[in-house]
Design brief:
Immunoglobulin-like, 1 helix
């Protein structure tokens, strides 16, 4: 019961993760809690309910402010992984060929 109420509160108060993708050059992430890993070819982000992996070239993070982040570069792939727990850690996020 508490889980249902908690989910409804998140939806109502806009705590859900929001993604806006502009072509393959820019992603805006709303409600991003932290940057777990950051390089010019891979970024791993943690939000309230998702782990977001972004692969590409010349990736750069801009405007990390109150729960928001802009990623610019040539974006090749985005992966969304649902988090099961608030303090869950993701895998290493390393790309494997």
């Amino acid at each position: 019961m508490f889980d249902k109420i908690n989910e409804k509160m998140k939806e109502t108060l806009f705590f859900e993760t929001g993604l806006h993708i502009a072509g393959n050059r820019e992603i805006t992430v709303e409600n991003c809690n932290r940057i777990e890993e950051c390089s010019d070819v891979f970024m791993s982000l943690i939000s309230n309910n998702l782990i977001i992996h972004i692969w590409g070239y010349d990736l750069r993070a801009f405007d990390f402010k109150t729960s928001g982040l802009i990623i610019r570069g040539k974006i090749a792939q985005v992966e969304l992984i649902e988090r099961s727990g608030k303090h869950e850690k993701s895998d290493t996020g390393k790309c494997e060929d």
